[in-house]
Amino acid sequence: MDRQRLSNAASGALLAALALCAMAMSSAFFLHTRHAAEERMEAIAAKARALPGVTLTDGHPGVIVTSMETDGQAARLGISVGDGVVSLNGTPISSLDQASAYLLHHPQPRIALGLKHADRMRVVMLDRPEGGR
What we know:
By secondary structure, the protein is of the alpha+beta class. It is 46% helix and 26% strand. 18% of the residues are buried.
């Protein structure tokens, strides 16, 4: 009888330990997943802010200006929400990823933005922060 109780107690303790391990692993997985999602969101936000004072999103044509600083350089240059950025320094762009990669690899202090607004094309020169990023 004592052996049976000892065996039951050991089984109970083992099950409790396994349950604790499962909870710890579940918590670790949740935290890892949450951290990875936050990193992806930060990367997306950084791409969206690839140009100073302007927020961009994928669209047609190129990438679309979705918001901007009201008193910023882009507004002074006549850039409007809804404008399509179709080229950077004459290089055609068709996605936010492509624009972000171009800007990362071409850190010059001024960039020529090819803009499309109401079926009209124009080019404006935008000054980038020190270091070109």
